[in-house]
Specification:
Order of helices and strands: EEEHEHEEHHHHHHHHH
Shape: globular
Largest sheet: 4 strands, mixed
Strand content: 5-15%
Helix content: 40-55%
Number of helices: 11
Strand order of the largest sheet: 4-3-5-6
């Protein structure tokens, strides 16, 4: 299988998508890696790890992927990292945290910088990422809501959804003020890529809990327009997944048994 990636006005032909590999579990040895080439320790459905992959694709930097089964983590992975993804392995070093390693990647190729040139603009973009990050806890909380009765669980889910909606309203307001195609301006930038992964996954709530008022708020028109623009970004076209795929994954993830390789399984 071959695929073509368009990024930064250039075309790369890849022999295969590097993330289409099985997730390594407990007992698997650490694969050998080219020390002069970036290797991403990844999990295909992880929004944090998605940040790093999207930055690499957008900047047109070749990379390899080692997928990790986060339910049955290999010993070497636990010994050399904090047990979470993404991690970049480069020149024998392990660079943890998606925000940190995404900045590292950006600085490796300054000619295609995704951060703004001016420090103040960069700082304001990072503050927006932090504020948008408030959606992370309720995003998972909706799926983990508990109660004594079915009614109580539904009410709790709705309560948490409304909490998350406040962050979406904040993002819509900021986009309206900017009046640009992307949060970062007329071209996609670091701020867009750092907040996108959770927006990509928002449809899962309405898929998993239909009829409970989990639809994406139609009144957030600026956010809607941004989402449409983001789906046209080449990196997201290549790595992004539809809501149904994410929903199928999350139905398993909170249980004891999870098929991390479901996209590799025929007919999945």
């Amino acid at each position: 299988m071959s695929s073509v990636v368009w990024a930064a006005g250039t075309k790369i032909k890849m022999s295969s998508t590097p993330w289409d590999v099985p997730h390594l579990a407990d007992g698997a040895p650490e694969p050998q890696a080219d020390p002069d080439r970036i290797t991403v320790l990844n999990m295909r459905f992880c929004p944090f790890a998605s940040r790093t992959i999207l930055v690499l694709l957008t900047k047109n930097i070749p990379f390899d992927v080692v997928n990790i089964n986060l339910k049955k983590k290999p010993d070497w992975f636990l010994e050399k990292t904090d047990g979470t993804v993404s991690v970049i392995k480069y020149k024998g070093k392990y660079i943890l945290e998606s925000l940190v390693n995404s900045d590292f990647v950006d600085e490796m190729e300054p000619s295609t910088a995704l951060h703004p040139k001016y420090p103040l603009e960069k700082a304001m973009g990072r503050l927006l990422v932090e504020k948008a990050g408030k959606m992370v806890r309720p995003f998972y909380g909706i799926m983990m809501a508990k109660g004594e009765t079915t009614k109580e669980v539904k009410e709790k889910r709705k309560e948490i959804f409304n909490e998350m909606k406040k962050t979406l309203e904040y993002m819509d307001k900021e986009l309206k003020k900017k009046g640009s195609k992307f949060i970062s301006g007329n071209c996609v930038g670091m701020t867009d890529l750092m907040v996108w992964p959770w927006i990509e996954r928002l449809p899962v709530h309405n898929i998993l809990f239909p009829g409970e008022g989990m639809e994406f708020p139609s009144e957030l028109t600026s956010l809607h327009a941004w989402i449409k623009n983001m789906w046209e970004v080449p990196a997201i076209k290549m790595y992004g997944l539809e809501g149904a795929a994410h929903a199928k994954f999350y139905t398993q993830y909170f249980s004891e048994h999870c098929d991390f390789d479901m996209l590799l399984t025929k007919g999945a």
